[in-house]
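Reposting from the mailing list since nobody answered there.

I have sequence plus structure tokens for a pair of proteins and want to know whether others read the tokens the same way I do. The first protein:
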Amino acid sequence: VSTMNAKTRSGGEEEASGIRNETLGESGCLGETKRRQVIHVAYVIAALDLTFLFMQMGVMPYLGKSLGLDSVGFGYLQTIFGVLQLVGGYIFGRFADQFGARAALILSCASGSIFFLLMSLSTSIPLLFLSRLPGVFMHGIPGAQKVITDMTTPSQRAGALGKLGLCFGVGIIAGSALGGTLSTKFGIYIPAYVGLVGSLINTLIAMVWIPLQTKPKSDHHMAEHSTSQSGSLFSIKEILRLMKFPGVMEVFIVKVFAGLPIGLFMIMFSIISMDFFGLEAVESGYLMSYFGVLQMVVQGLVVGKLASHCTEMTLLRLSVFVFAGVGLGMALMRTVWHYCIIAVPLVFAFSMLATITDSILTKAVPSSDTGAMLGICASVQPLTRTVGPTIGGVLYKQFGVPSFGYLQLMINLGLFVYLLKSNIPLGETKS
């Protein structure tokens, strides 16, 4: 019976995809122009959201220190934020499926406004911890991904999602620079005020420019009859149901484990940059800006081009293979200049893996479940941030920086062999 239901859903998706193509053909130039405008607005909202987020990330250690928060307390603060993001990612995705991408983006931007408001009022440690609570619904990137997923055909999706990397690069560069400059010249709470005003503007942009219904009518009609639309916003049963679609579990496992060692390394990077590379705070900022530029170039110019010429499985294997090479390079690196060279393939593999797996996973499930799937994908980073400080700290203290590289090499070589030997059904026929 479950097999027949799965075939029925797959058939319905093929029929809906056909209707969508007909609708796109009938809509003409005006409809295509409108869709592009909405996608560009989603990019703008994502870039601004990330800029404000990186502003507060750069200022938060100094704000905590000024309130008397020690390094252990700051670790607890980061862990709480990671747990909230981890739990909220899937809930946010389900909310987007049930109420639409526009409502989800407005919720994210409004939560950001409350986040920065509470941060601007944080004159004590308890208030600072309280300011983390709105983080459960702060998911600007998944919200933008949901808009893009709804507004593009499956063949366009990887390239459109890849361009979000430009927003990430803008956020790193602008946010890091603005946070440091504003807090130094005008006071430690000024970035919070700027974030508050900016998040309110983002909310207005989402309300005015994002249409009430971003899905084609055929997909919206199917969503009303989908089993995923019933029940609460958080359901373990729904997560397990999505993981049972062909290829979903396999690709998700690759997504989680391929980038895990690098994620652990990046969590410990502030300590590594001081102890291992001997960098000052200003030099660390320059290095982060370098990463931002690489991210913009790779996802803005490279990922989309490759996605239009290669199959997604080929690109998935390529990203895992490059990750293995990056692991070898990290195991052998000794200076910050070695790391700057390794950063090029590292950013390429990281960007390609994130974009391709998101594209594959949203295609593998019904259109009514893309928000939930994106929410599950968005929970990977918060999960790493939650468990990373403990695991990364043990690795760094006991085995040193090369241990991250060797772990990266072994895991990704195993995943590469697995991808070569396994025949993962990607469900691309539905496109």
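The second protein, same order (residues first, tokens after):
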Amino acid sequence: SSRTIALLSQLEKINLDSVVGESDHARYVTSKILHLVQSQEKTRKEMTSKGSTGIEVILSTLEVKFSNFCGYRFIAALHFMVMKCGGRRASVLVTKGGTQILLQLLLTASKDSPPNEELMVLLHTLLAKIGPKDKKIGMKARINGALNISLNLVKHNLQNHRLVLPCLQVLRVYSTNSVNAVSLGKNGVVELMFKIIGPFSKRNTSLMKVALDTLAALLKSKTNARRAVDRGYVQVLLTIYVDWHRHDSRHRYMLIRKGVLQCIKSVTNIKLGRKAFIDANGMKILYNTSQECLAVRTLDPLVNTSSLIMRKCFPKNRLPLPTIKSAFHFQLPVIPSSGPVAQLYNLPPDVDDVVDESDDNDDGETESEIETETDDDKDQHFKNDDIETDIDKLKPRQELGRPIEELKMYEHFFPELLEDFQEWDLVSKEPKPFVPDTNLSGPIVVPTASVE
């Protein structure tokens, strides 16, 4: 009955038409729908309300592959509805299969030379908005071949911040998938992020914030972290953090400083990263900057993150510490004469005796294997066969400090440990066998004995 429903009905008829291309009538309908969506809140609510088929009709129209004019109008309409109606409409768009259609449109639009900048900005902005609502968007982008489109746009348009910003937002969504992070790292995305964050500058701080978040997600991959360490980027991150700490005297850019710390935290998850952090004097840098941040309450997130990094990177030693690093020196009560514990305590003081297995696992797992393991962990509870259940084996064997013969001299001090206390029968003058009383709930009965 409304104007919107009539336009959607006409659009459905156009979709059923076998004519390929864009007609004047299709141009008129798409322009009118875009105008109503942008100008009337009633139209937006009507198209996104429960039970409405407005979004489905628009998505099915985009699958027909009209020219860029119609596609741009519908993408703009979807973008306007998602931005104005909130995240709930983004979830509706995902459930209707919008992610797959938008990725396919992105792949199609990237084949144009040069690609339509307005269309690319709208597509990336829309994908960045609905990406967190779709857990499979990273896998879908990799299967469709759209993974490197955003990366190539950033490489060739570093000075075009209007286009780079939504592309980085999409890369941030892609990087949450470990397989995508490794693939993007092989194509030079880590080096590209360091070109964007660069030295201290208050221009385009929003772009730098997104770039730091993307870099922190990428460095969670051990392969990318090793690549960053090999290229000396740990020292670069510390230099950037010190620059922002010195220039941000009014603490307006705390999120950027925290983003740099998140990158350092990610790269120090591996042993090489922790070693590079210590070699770059990172402990002293973070300690001094944290001391200066203690007086400002709003900078507590920086102090907390710095503390986590320093605790993680501080050298680990066994206890008790038989070296000059320890203020106390004591010995364990029982140290076996042989075995792995004895081998540890026989090592010289300067040998690292703490096993670090953080670099043992590579990023060789595929996404399907990870998902299968996650589903299996939810459905089944596996028994750990490595856990020892024999109590006798778990008890340590302690050897007495003196032989038993020397301890017999103390028997007269503890007679209760030697005497055999038993209840005697007054009639038979013999020990009475102990019989437990099973009638505990009844009254207490005191037996009487006759004495001859």
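Reply #1 (J.P.):
I read it the same way you do. The two ends are 114 Å apart (CA to CA).
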